[in-house]
Design a protein that fits this description.
Mean pLDDT: 95
Radius of gyration: 18 Å
Structural class: alpha+beta
Number of helices: 8
Number of strands: 15
CATH superfamily of the largest domain: Fructose-1,6-Bisphosphatase, subunit A, domain 1
Largest sheet: 8 strands, mixed
Strand order of the largest sheet: 4-3-5-6-7-8-9-10
Order of helices and strands: HEEHEEEHEEEEEEHHEHEHEEH
Low-confidence stretches: none
Oligomer: single chain
Strand content: 25-35%
Bound molecules: L-MYO-inositol-1-phosphate
Length: 265
């Protein structure tokens, strides 16, 4: 149905080009057009829109029958092959001139992610993964950390719930986690946080009310690097809305902290 090897080469080419396009906009951050989305703290820039349009054009030319789900334009087409795009994951980091933003793309075939790429253009770091073939950073194989105890772990998370004005803020869970872990980081791109778990720079990441385009590529990255990903109860049915990703060794210890914060579904 699809030549996955050829698709992975295509993916690497277009994600690098998309990253280069974002860097052009990054030179003009003072004058970039910014629009409000669902709430006044939820924003989109013209760079997000331009990068998604570019990726849709490239995918449409190469694979006209494939479906595409993108953060800015939603879902188009219907096919067992679906490209899931976050054109700029970490829009706020991007807008503030920070390094930690990414372009994130996953290819799903019959509902299962087969290919993933996350590119951090300002760092020139390209993370890639292919199901069953491992995860890589700029071509070098990745492996999760070997941290055994949650007390030695560095975690990351995010707070989309606050931006969306939700009642559930992640702050009570954040306070509890801080009592158990070595330290915490908030970079601003869920896709990159997952890549940092895959590369062993961080031992874990949790986030709720996150969207599939934020995490589809990063989840495959963690799993292919030997880590574990689940919802807050340890299963998969709550994915991708709730995500707990760890090096595997500290997954159970992390679930013990997180489980009491699971809401009913
Ligand atoms: C963002 C994330 C971030 C998360 C945000 C948001 P965007 O994606 O990746 O880590 O905490 O709430 O969803 O909107 O910049 O593509």
């Amino acid at each position: 149905m699809i030549n996955v090897h050829e698709a992975s080469q295509f993916l690497e080419t277009i994600i690098r080009e998309a990253g280069a396009l974002s860097l052009e906009y990054r030179k003009e951050l003072k004058t970039i057009r910014v629009e409000q989305k669902a709430t006044d703290r939820d924003i989109v820039t013209e760079a997000d829109q331009a990068v998604e349009s570019f990726l849709r054009k490239e995918i449409g030319e190469k694979y006209p029958d494939h479906a595409v789900l993108g953060e800015e334009e939603g879902e188009t087409g219907s096919s067992p092959c679906r490209w899931i795009i976050d054109p700029i994951d970490g829009t706020i980091a991007f807008l503030h001139g920070q390094y930690q933003y990414s372009v994130s793309i996953a290819l799903e075939v019959e509902g299962r992610t087969e290919l993933a790429a996350v590119f951090a253009p300002a760092l020139n770091d390209l993370f890639t993964a292919r199901r069953g073939k491992g995860a890589f950073l700029n071509g070098t194989p990745l492996h999760v950390s070997d941290t055994e105890k949650i007390g030695d772990a560095v975690f990351a998370s995010g707070f989309p719930c606050i931006r969306a004005g939700m009642k559930e803020t992640n702050l009570p869970l954040f306070s509890e986690m801080m009592m158990h872990i070595r330290d915490f980081r908030r970079g601003g791109s869920a896709a990159l946080e997952l890549c940092f778990v895959a590369s062993g720079q961080q031992d874990g990441y949790w986030e709720k009310h996150i969207e599939i385009y934020d995490v589809a590529a990063g989840i495959l990255m963690v799993e292919e690097a030997g880590g574990q990903v689940s919802d807050y109860r340890g299963g998969r049915e709550g994915l991708p809305t709730e995500v707990l990703a760890t090096n595997g060794r500290i997954h159970r210890q992390s679930l013990d902290v997180i489980r009491p914060f699971t809401s009913s579904r």
